[in-house]
Structures are given as structure tokens and as C-alpha cells.
Amino acid sequence: MKIHEYQAKEILAKYGVPVPRGEVANTPEEAAAVARKLFAEGASGVVVKAQIHAGGRGKGGGVKVAKNRDEAEQHVQKILGMQLITHQTGPQGQKVRRLLIEETAQIDRELYLGIVLDRSTGKLTFMASQAGGMEIEEVAAKTPEAIYKESIDPAIGLGAYQARKLAFALGLKPTQVNQAVAFFQSLYKATLETDASLVEINPFITTKDDKLFALDAKINFDDNALFRHADIKALRDVDEEDPLEVEASKYSLNYIKLDGTIACMVNGAGLAMATMDIIQYAGGSPANFLDVGGGATQEQIEHAFEILLSDKNVKAIFINIFGGILRVDRLATGVVAAAKNLNVQVPIVLRLEGTNVEEGRKILKESGLNFQVGATMKEAAELVVAAAKEAK
Ligand code: GDP
Ligand code: MN
Fold it and tell me: What residues does substrate bind to (predicted)?
């Protein structure tokens, strides 16, 4: 799960990570009130920041500095409600519904910090780079040596010596090193205790008066751990998610929308991945990833159909099921019922194997509906690709 920058900063502040003073605003009036308050408290400027679940906001015009209240109000007028396009939003952009208004910082250097779960070592890795404020993916691709890494032993935590190594690698001044050690350890503690899968501070800044701040903050959480963080779960903003994905999550369906024309309904994440691959291999393109899970009910299958069909790009449906816990006859009953209830018009191709497969095939055959069944996964993929091409 992703959250907004302002929410990430609230969490980090609780762990003692220094962040600039600021507040979120949902309306121009609220934004003006926050700016007024910050100036009254002595801020020399404020920064107006679009809150969307995507990076690259600065380049897209979603982060603007103001020297006085008038300027701040002009930026608010422009940014609030705009369709902000960044390299992470796609060409359609994302509507800005919230702003973070913060006191400006006197930036000396812009650096990078990140903590990410490294699946190859099974440990959290702390990353730091002097190439902050820019796209870290580009730095990683072109100059990977510019990113310093410390792998963290979960039994010990981030050692002070490791934090000092990172501080030296960043070229911090001796007067900043102790602050940096405390900063990095707080960041690590926040990552660990919130079950975050990624924490990124870009830029991590030093100021002209030698202070350190998280000027930007991004946190992604492990969805499988959200059950033990009710407070974090409450931070979810469905406005930032794909509406079909939100709908799917209501029925515990693992659905991710893609750009292709062939809808997939599959049980098991591994089989779903293989299905997307074989569609590509057969010359088609998947419209989604969908794992209905091991024990899908007829109701879930109907909802899955509704979601697949709400995607206007879908030209054919590929149902690829290996009946284990989910018995094939039960699935076939669900598919037939859904196809009748929803009056499905797009061609459906199935590949079925596993428990009660013969009963399942019989149910499909006797339904009177027009399903194609592939004998193998490859044949079914070829059939569905051909069906999608014909439908165009
Ligand atoms: P992102 O583009 O979505 O990653 O948004 P950031 O929060 O990282 O902001 C982008 C850039 O805006 C930063 O790298 C800074 O250069 C600039 N910026 C953000 N806040 C301030 C501020 O308080 N003062 C100044 N001078 N620049 C800022
Ligand atoms: Mn940033």
C-alpha cells in the first residue's frame, strides 16, 4: 500500500526523523490558513506541494516555492485540482486533491536515502547517495557506484558504525555526523516497526545552518502485514488507486489492470504470471493480472467477470484454471452462471485441468453457451489470441 508524502512525514516525525513544519490542506481556504500560520510563525517562505501517489511532481509543476502569502495563494490556485503529469503517472496524469504546505528549507545539499527489502539477502538494505533530488532509478542504471549500501542484520539493527559509514559516504561534515546517525537509526526503526517494504527520502537535505531534514518522503507498506497496523491501513486513499483495482480488492481478488486486450482469469499467482507470458508468446497482450485465489466462490467468479468486462479494451477472456482446492466443476458452474447473468458477449477460451475436470468440461458443453476449450495451455493461448484479433 502506498501513502501520501504528508502521511509519510507524520509517521517519520513520530519516530524522531526531522521534517519541515507543515500541514495538509484539502481546499484553497485551508491552504491559505496554513500558509498564513507558517508566515506568522516566522517562515521566510513556504512550499506548495501536490499530494499524489507518484514521484516526479517537481518536474511536472506540482512543487512550487512562495516568498509571501500572495504567491502561495497563486500556486495553490494553479496546483489544487490540476491534472498532474509525471513520469510515474502515465500520460493521463493524476488529479491533485490535496496539498502539503510547508515552511521552506535553506537547502545546502540534496542527497538520497532509501531503505528497501533486498529479497536476495532477505535483509533490509540502507542506501545512500550524493546524487539526491533526481531520479534514483537513472542513477542506479548509469552510475550504480554512486549508491552506497549497508545490509542490515535483523538481529542487531542498523549499527552506529554502519550509520557513520553512510554519513561519511555522503560527505557530511563532522558537525553533521551525529545528527545523521540519529536520523538514519530513526528511519530504520520506522521502517521496521511499520512493516514498510520501501522508505525513500529524496531529497534528504543539509541546510546552510548544518541541519538535516527529510524534504520528501515516500513509504510503501507490505500489504500482508497491514492486518497488524489498523492506523496505517486507515491512511489508504482510494482516490489514488485504479477504480477497478479498488472494486476487486472488495472481493479479495488480486487484480492489476494492464493495457492489453485479453482478460485473464487464473487461480494462483504463479499460474497467472505464466498465463500473461504465454499470451505474449502467442502474439497477444494481457489486459490484466487476476488471481482469483485457491478457494474462489461462485460469487467471486461473478464479480471477477464484472471487473474484467468493465475494462473497455477487453476483446476476449482467457480462463486458465488448475483445479486443486478450487474444483473444476465448481468453477465451471460459476463461469456458466456468470456468463448467463452478465450476458457476456466477448469470446471466452478456457484451459482446465485438475480435480473433477471431466465434470467441469461436461457442464460447459451442456450450458449451451459458446466456450472454446484448449487442450493445452499453449493451444488455449493461441485460440484466445486469435479470438481477440478477430474481435477487433
Ligand atoms: P518529487 O519531485 O515528487 O520527488 O517532489 P520533492 O518533494 O522531492 O520536490 C522536488 C524538488 O523541489 C526538490 O528536489 C527540491 O529541489 C524542491 N523543493 C522541495 N521543497 C523545497 C523547499 O522547501 N525549498 C526549496 N528551495 N526547494 C524545495
Ligand atoms: Mn522527491
Answer: 267, 324-326
Q: Which residues of 359-391 are buried (b: 16+ CB within 10 A; e: fewer)?
A: ebbebbeebeeebbbbeebeebbbbbbbbbeee
3-state secondary structure of 74: helix
CATH 3.40.50.150 is held by the domain 243-391: no
Q: Counting beta carbons within 10 angstroms of the beta carbon of residue 120, is it exposed (0 to 12), middle (13 to 18) or buried (19 or more)?
A: exposed
Question: Ligand 1 within 6 A of 157 CB?
Answer: no
- The CATH 3.40.50.261 portion of the chain extends over 243-391
Q: CATH for 21-104?
A: 3.30.1490.20
Task: Give the strand pairing for 123-129 and 94-95.
Answer: unpaired
pLDDT in tens, 283-324: 999 999 999 887 778 788 889 999 999 999 999 999 998 888
Report the mean per-residue pLDDT for the chain: 94
Question: Does residue 252 register a pLDDT over 90?
Answer: no
ω into residue 243 within 30 of 0, thus cis? Answer: no
44-58, 197-211, 240-254: lowest mean pLDDT where?
Answer: 240-254
Question: Does residue 162 surpass a pLDDT of 90?
Answer: yes
User: Which residues are designated catalytic?
Assistant: 112, 200
CB 161 within 8 A of CB 180: no
Which CATH number is 1-19+106-241 given?
Answer: 3.30.470.20
CATH 3.30.1490.20 domain locations along the chain: 21-104
Please list the residue range(s) of the chain that carry CATH number 3.30.470.20: 1-19+106-241
Q: Provide the pLDDT confidence category of residue 218 given band limits of 50, 70 and 90.
A: very high
In the reported structure, the alpha carbon of residue 70 is separated from the centroid of ligand 1 by a whole-number distance in angstroms of: 20
Query: In the chain, where does DSSP find H-type helix?
Result: 5-14, 28-40, 69-79, 136-142, 160-169, 174-193, 230-233, 243-250, 269-281, 298-310, 328-341, 357-366, 377-391
Q: Give the total residue count for the chain.
A: 392
Whether 216 lines ligand 1, by a CB cut-off of 6 Å, is: yes
* CA dist., res. 243 & res. 267, Å (int): 22
**110 among the known binding-site residues?**
yes
* pLDDT for position 368: 87
Ligand nearest to the CA of 52: 1
